[in-house]
Amino acid sequence: MNTIQKALAKREHATPSVLTESTSTVLQIDAVQPSTKIVQQHTISDQTVYFTETQNDLNTGKDSNVEQEKSNTVQNRFHRLPFDQLRQAGVLTPDAKRSQLAEEYRLIKRPLLLNVDKKGADIAENPNLIMVTSALPGEGKTFTAINLAMSIAMEQDRTVLLVDGDVAKPAASKRLGITFEQGLIDLLENDRLSIADVLVKTNIENMRVIPAGKHHDRATELLASERMLAIMEELSSRYPDRIVIFDSPPLLLTTESAVLSEMMGQIVVVVAAEQTVQQAVIEALTRLGQDKIKGLVLNKYRPSFGSRYGSGYGYSYSYSYGDVPTSDVSSKPKD
Predict the structure, then answer these.
(1) Torsion angle of the four alpha carbons 69, 232, 189, 163, in this order, in degrees rounded to the nearest 10
(2) How far is CA 312 from CA 30, 31, 136, 260, 327, in A?
(3) What is the 8-class DSSP label of residue 97?
(4) How far apart are CA 76 and CA 101, in angstroms?
(5) Cα(32)–Cα(103) distance, rounded to whole angstroms?
(6) How many CA atoms lie within 13 A of 177 on its CB side?
(7) Could you give the CA distance from residue 224 to residue 167 in angstroms, rounded to a whole number?
(8) Model pTM?
(9) Does residue 105 come out as left (phi exceeding 0), alpha (psi in the -120 to 50 range) or beta?
(10) Whole-number Å distance between alpha carbons of 266 and 248
(11) How far does the chain reach from its first CA to its final CA, in angstroms?
(12) Which of 72, 139, 166, 191 sits in a 20 to 30 Å window from 278, CA-based?
């Protein structure tokens, strides 16, 4: 029984959950390259188009009137990603030449994929559900989530779904130029909608996107609902080769991120070099579940002249399972 199924059983029987025994491991992969840099995002023109296709299997078991409304055709959403503009904004694209950024994200994604295949150092439930977050705004979580999704989409035998889970301040869809209004919040609020209704196909064959959807005052409650658990179960199990990347709100500013983290198998926390103090990172990590694989990515890192590794900072891209890491993320505090 996986994490989501346990959560559903917990709500049904009102019995306390039991945490698994924690172990810990650290994988150092940072010292061979400088970390990624945030590049100012440019305005991306809308390149969204519509097309229709026949769908024979529509929400089996739902009210017949709903099926009648949808009939045998549904409107599927397609968006052509503007590769030229994305490259100018520092985003990986499938047609890009070999680059340092591409190599960095190959190193970042590899342990994540090993955990998905249960070949990593730690075993987690629902490892194909990966949340990307940060302690505070402006650290590069959305930039990281998009590039991680792009890098995984380049794999030969994987598909990736990028979910804009920052429902208060959605940014992932906007940076990709997607302007569809319906998304995750609409799916949670309206049980007549299915995942297919809010899914956006792209011109990257094995990459899909779900926008955040409309603003909602009770977004936290929707994300904590049983419907959300059911949706997460479907996302996790429907396609065994699919990796689901959630761009989450900052951990220290909202409650939505903590709610989302309970359903995830792996969590990537982005830390901004020379910006985020150690205590903020530690406090953010304490808000995450103890039975999760947690990774740290140092962003905006610029090595000093003459040294590829820089000075004054310990850059660790690592995984911990259970306890919060105690090693320094930054060796000097923010002024």
Answers:
(1) -90
(2) 15, 13, 22, 34, 14
(3) P
(4) 33
(5) 10
(6) 22
(7) 13
(8) 0.72
(9) alpha
(10) 13
(11) 47
(12) 166
Residue 10 lies in a domain: no
Residue 3 falls inside a structural domain: no
| The Cα angle at residue 55 between residues 51 and 59, in degrees rounded to 5 | 125
Q: Whose CA is closest to 309, among 2, 31, 5, 49?
A: 31
Q: Is residue 94 part of a domain?
A: no
Helix/strand/coil for 180: coil
CATH of the domain at 106: 3.40.50.300
Give the number of domains in the chain. 1
Q: What SS3 class is residue 49?
A: strand
| Single-letter residue type at 63 | D
DSSP 72: T
Compute the distance between CA of residue 275 and CA of residue 285 in angstroms, rounded to an integer.
17
Q: Which of 267, 282, 52, 323 is nearest to 145 (CA)?
A: 267
> For residues 288 and 306, what is the distance between their CA atoms, to the nearest angstrom?
38
Q: How confident is the model at residue 32 (pLDDT cuts 50, 70, 90)?
A: very low
Q: What is the CA radius of gyration of the chain?
A: 20
Provide mean pLDDT across the span 120-139. Answer: 88
Q: Which domain holds residue 121?
A: 23-38+100-321
**In a domain? residue 7:** no
How far apart are alpha carbons 302 and 188 in whole angstroms? 41
Read off the pLDDT of residues 239-282 as tens digits, 9 standing for 90 and up. 888 999 999 999 999 889 999 999 999 999 999 998 989 999 99
According to DSSP, the residues that pair with 106 across neighbouring strands are: none
> What is the rounded CA–CA span in Å between residue 161 and residue 263?
16
